[in-house]
Amino acid sequence: MKRLCFLLLFLTACKQERKANTSFYYWKTVYQINLTAFHLSKLYVRIMDVDTDRAGQPVPVSPIIFKSPLPSSVKIVPVVFIVNDMLRSNDTTQLKTLAAHIIRFVDAKIKQAGKRDYQELQVDCDWTAKTRDPYFFLLRQLSKTTSARHQLLSATLRLHQLKNQQSSGIPPVGRVMLMCYNMGNLRKYGSQNSILELSELKKYLGPDLTAYPLPEDIGLPLFNWAVAFRNKAYIGLSKKLDITLLNDKNQFRFIGGNLYRAVNDLPQYGLLHGDEIRWESVAENELNQVAKYISPFLKTDSLTVIYFHLDNDLIKAHPYAELEKTTALFR
């Protein structure tokens, strides 16, 4: 009995704790934020979107402007978002040129951020089976430069791309960031939460995650939004609405779950009397439940938990100390 207890104690002591670090996405078009309250080693910063112009040529869209440099202690990970439809209209010659333009554009923005270089470039794209080949070709072109510089090329991975590996393929990168949000049907009427819902997540994650051939980082949501319906048909997101206004009984009536009904016409919000709003947000306990569920399926010995996204109002609702506790659940 003593030998058994000793063996169990020995095995427990030998189990290495997974390294898990907290980071954020910065997704605004102007960089101007104080990071002193956050103990970050790196920040993932959206540099630009890439879409096509009227002539069908790839162009940078809404590139970021750095009004202040990043702190010297925080490394920057530039992120480039590729609009999926853009890939349909570009051949290999154009994609080779695009890869070179992306690298040059990112390099220039890194200098504007007060940095000499970067160790990782991340590409974000909701590719499909039809755009997989041109997207992977673009990634291989980017990898030629990042590999020569000894930089990591990573890519975002959506839940459907993880689940449908046979049709989606495995991106030719060194690492992926699994987006554990935007998993439900946004346009479907009802009281579900399309941002984050554990029951929906379980449909995608499990052995497929353990078997995935690339190391993963994890992306978790902090954002919220108001989803508007008219006669139970989706009419869009109302970005101006917040939970305080929805709880104003002169404007809305709570009808159960996370649903509210407009009691008057509200043209300033694009709403009519009787329109319904589904308020979607993420609570701390929901993040923790997701972290506890995902962690056992991960085989990587180190990862970054990247919260989307860094915003003063969102951080008030999700204090950094609480997010650190969520990150700790991956260790």
Structure explained in plain terms:
This protein is α/β, with parallel strands linked by helices. The chain has 2 domains: 16-223 and 281-328, Glycosidases (TIM Barrel, Alpha-Beta Barrel); 225-280, no CATH class. The protein has 11 helices and 16 strands. The chain has helices spanning 2-14, 92-112, 132-148, 159-163, 165-168, 198-201, 207-211, 243-246, 284-294, 312-317, 320-328, and strands at residues 19-26, 30-31, 42-52, 58-61, 65-66, 75-82, 120-124, 152-158, 175-179, 216-221, 225-230, 233-237, 252-256, 259-262, 276-280, 302-308. The strands form 3 sheets. It has an 8-stranded parallel barrel with strand order 1-3-6-7-8-9-10-16. It has a 5-stranded antiparallel β-sheet with strand order 12-11-15-14-13. A two-stranded parallel ribbon has the order 2-5. Strand 11 and strand 12 (233-237) form a beta hairpin. Helix 2 packs across helix 3 and helix 9 (284-294) runs parallel beside helix 11 (320-328). It starts with a helix and ends with a helix.
The pLDDT mean sits at 94
Whole-angstrom Rg: 22 Å
The stretches of 5 or more residues where confidence is low (pLDDT under 50) are 4-14
The CATH homologous superfamily of the largest domain is called Glycosidases
CATH class of the largest domain: Alpha Beta
The CATH architecture term of the largest domain is Alpha-Beta Barrel
Strand order of the largest sheet: 1-3-6-7-8-9-10-16
- Compute the number of helices: 11
Q: What string gives the helices and strands in order?
A: HEEEEEEHEHEHHEHHEEEHEEEHEHH
Kindly identify the CATH topology of the largest domain. TIM Barrel
Strand portion = 25-35%
* Class from secondary-structure proportions: alpha/beta
The helical percent reads 25-40%
Our measurement of the CA-to-CA distance between the termini, rounded to an integer number of angstroms, reads: 30 Å
